From TrEMBL:
Domain of life: Bacteria
Alphabetized Gene3D superfamilies for the sequence: AhpD-like
Pfam families, alphabetized: CMD
Residue span, Carboxymuconolactone decarboxylase-like domain: 24-96
PANTHER family xref list: 4-CARBOXYMUCONOLACTONE DECARBOXYLASE FAMILY PROTEIN (AFU_ORTHOLOGUE AFUA_6G11590), BLL7811 PROTEIN
InterPro entries: AhpD-like, AhpD_core, CMD-like
SUPFAM superfamilies in alphabetical order: AhpD-like
Name of the protein in question: Carboxymuconolactone decarboxylase family protein
Length: 161
């Protein structure tokens, strides 16, 4: 499968990608645990059918020491025993924040209460920003049909500079 359009071979798209990548640094440098960041990014990407982002976040999570079991089970996190209550709250927020059109009120009060229980304000800010950013990245990649499989951990570090 070939991409419809190379986002890294177009001047305007590259300018946008640099700013997008810099925005992600704010989240990466936050107190939101790295494991939570990758699990949320993976689950959001699964829902949106973004193979490129699933590939990227799986490989980044593995490079950061995440286990195969936790990565494999993220699509069925409700039935899995390998996630903390805090991670479960973040995954619920990711799902509800991604499937906004499926629920009149978007994120439920119950999910929000669980997020508030487990995360401080800075972590919540990072979590909300992460869900929004990953949804945007998924849309970019799905629209241009960016293929999955060739991502190498850390390969976008140069984009930020």
């Amino acid at each position: 499968m070939d991409a419809r359009f190379n986002l890294f071979d177009n001047e305007l798209a590259v300018k946008f990608a640099k700013r997008f990548a810099n925005a992600s640094l704010v989240i990466q440098q936050s107190a939101l645990p790295k494991a939570t960041q990758e699990l949320v990014a993976m689950r959001t990407s699964q829902i949106n059918g973004c193979g490129f982002c699933i590939d990227m976040h799986t490989k980044e999570a593995m490079a950061a020491g995440e286990t195969t079991v936790r990565l494999t089970l993220v699509a069925a996190w409700r039935e899995a025993t390998v996630y903390t209550e805090a991670e479960r709250a973040a995954l619920a927020l990711a799902e509800e924040g991604t499937r906004l059109a499926d629920a009149h009120d978007g994120v439920s009060d119950e999910t929000w209460a669980q997020v508030r229980k487990h995360y401080d304000d800075d972590q919540i800010g990072a979590l909300v920003a992460l869900v929004a950013l990953v949804n945007a990245a998924n849309r970019l990649n799905v629209i241009v049909r960016n293929p999955a499989g060739s991502y190498e951990p850390g390969m976008f570090a140069a984009v930020v500079s």
